Amino acid sequence: MDKILRVKMGSKPEYAVEELGDYAGLGGRALTTKVVYKEVPPLCHPLGPENKLAIAPGMMSGSAAAISGRISVGCKSPLTGGIKESNAGGQAAQVMARLGYAAIILEGESPEGKLYTLVVKKDEISLVEASDITGLNNYDAVEKLVAKYGDKAAYMSIGTAGERKLAASSIACTDVELRPTRHCGRGGVGAVMASKGIKAVVLDDAGCSMRQPVNADAFKAANKLFVQGIKAHGVSGQGLPAYGTNVLSNVINEAGGFPTNNFSKGQFPNVHKISGETQAETEIARGGKATHGCHRGCVIQCSGTYVDKDGNYLTKQPEYETVWAHGPNCGIDDLDAIAMMDRMDDDFGLDTIEMGATIAVAMEAGLAKFGDADAAIKLLQEVGDGTPLGRILGSGAAVTAKTYGIERAPVVKGQAMPAYDPRPIQGIGVTYATTPQGADHTAGYAIATNILKVGGFVDPLKPQGQVELSRNLQIATAAIDSTGMCLFIAFPILDQPETFNAFVDLINAFFGLSMTADDVTALGKSVLTMERDFNKAAGFTKEDDRLPMYFKREKLEPHNAIFDVTDEELDQVFNW
Amino acid sequence: MSCIEVKTFATLNSLFPSVQDYPLQEGDRVLDIMARIGIPPEKVTIIFINNVHAEPESPLKDGDVLGLFPPIGGG
């Protein structure tokens, strides 16, 4: 990864391959954040020519390091108006890293609204007019691309939601089976890709080889210990492979923090119908798969394949967040309907969290009844059809709530909250409020310590200790997001010092460095500092680091909890 | 007779199914119930009593709902 591909769109699209310069040694979120921080004017319109879309595999991607296949996409977000980093699994990171690119930076704007396919091969780069796939959704577009460019490449694409520049639109990455199922989902990154005039990126690493470590023996030894640690931990070694991320439905429900009917209750009575246990059982009984990796080299295998009642492929195993968003948050207890909406989101190119939260707001507004799965599917179809209502819904929960005069929009910085209510789980509330990304659970996953007893225990019902917990997790996450490692390595790393050491040793052996734990922390802090500075220059103040006020006013059953971390405490999260 | 509901989840549930009315004895703590059912303590990392986190030593009373989880996570 010793070069950057810079694609300048305009009346005459052109590209240049550059040296790394200031970006040397960075990857993933650290790299996309630095590009946005250094090169994008904070006051620009997210869909204007001054914004840029940076795509970067992690520092360790394309190597033999286990579970290193995350790809980051960064830009100024059309959903939040702040900096955005959205990452996904799939094959793109590994392939792009082997091609040698630390980043692809898309800049300028679509010439005359035309869309192009960017094709990147070992010795050839081309921009091809995408008239053959323009107007297609992800599944059809990728099928055509595979027919043209082969089954050895990895593909990134936008669906019609991205083409319409909707603020909830995603960028799809193909999985091992060449399906567009792994999405850089959050923040409307698909709309930014469309505004640059790029419909798809083809990454073909034929003729390229795996990235080699500087210290091969030390790398091999550290990788072995790292994998052993991941497999030895109960969460990453047993729970996730057996049941997938949706294993969380029962425990979050039991904790009373499972947002139901647009965050109006903390428990869903029919949780057993949509739980990870039921989902895995259903998949296996129908001939699908309950254990499956989203990219080659994954040693956790938290995904799966969801098939319909006749055994035909419908979608990948919907994630916990998706099951919750389209399920209990809308009062829906039908796994098949939820899987159908997951398929539709992947196909149209939409963030499942934002869309589930938006449909719940629409239900509160009276557009459909809570629990009506058919009506929810029809609302989602409106987005795919691009109707005026569909465009409102595809703009996210905040816009939909404003359009229909609803106070209860569960958003921070315009981005919908994920599957944990911040009132009975106060640590995640601190993360939602303060992360520069807008409400995002992955930015500082306090659920681990508030609920799952990973990395210790901080009582979720009390405000004490939550700021420190969220701060430490946000710093660690910013660093992990830069390595290309799946965030689920955090479970063994937080509990097992020897696995954390193996993780640091692995990076050191690969690059010939001698980083310590303090250096990892410094990397995370530097990423967060750039993100905070960008947002500040874009107009954000500490008053944007707050939850909507109804989370401090309306008590949530069963704990009758309100969010009671004070504003003064929230302002201490980044006080290092 | 005093009873509690015992709910088990994930891998625990296939070995030790949930019980709606489990008899409670005087002075029972969570670890006593687990011992009588035969659940090895090391298999349980998350314990809830009436939706609030609890410990193996936490006492139980009539009508409590006990939730037991093995190590799980996601996100």
What's the short story on this structure?
By secondary structure, chain A is of the alpha+beta class. Chain A is built from 24 helices and 17 strands.
Protein described:
- The complex is a heterodimer of chains A (576) and B (75).
- Helix content of chain A is 40%, strand content 14%.
- With 576 residues, chain A is of the alpha+beta class.
- Among the domains of chain A are: 3-203, Aldehyde ferredoxin oxidoreductase, N-terminal domain (Aldehyde Ferredoxin Oxidoreductase,  A, domain 1, 4-Layer Sandwich); 246-420, Orthogonal Bundle (Aldehyde Ferredoxin Oxidoreductase Protein, subunit A, domain 2), CATH 1.10.569.10.
- In chain A, helix 6 packs antiparallel against helix 21, helix 11 (320-326) runs parallel beside helix 13 and helix 17 packs across helix 19.
- The longest helix of chain A is centred in the last third of the chain and has 21 residues, at 517-537.
- The two termini of chain A are 32 Å apart.
- In chain B, a hairpin with a 2-residue loop joins strand 3 and strand 4.
- Chain B is built from 2 helices and 5 strands.
- Chain B has a single domain, classed as Roll (Ubiquitin-like (UB roll)), CATH 3.10.20.
- The radius of gyration of chain B is 11 Å and the shape is globular.
- Chain B has a 5-stranded mixed sheet.
- Chain B is α+β, with helices and mostly antiparallel strands.
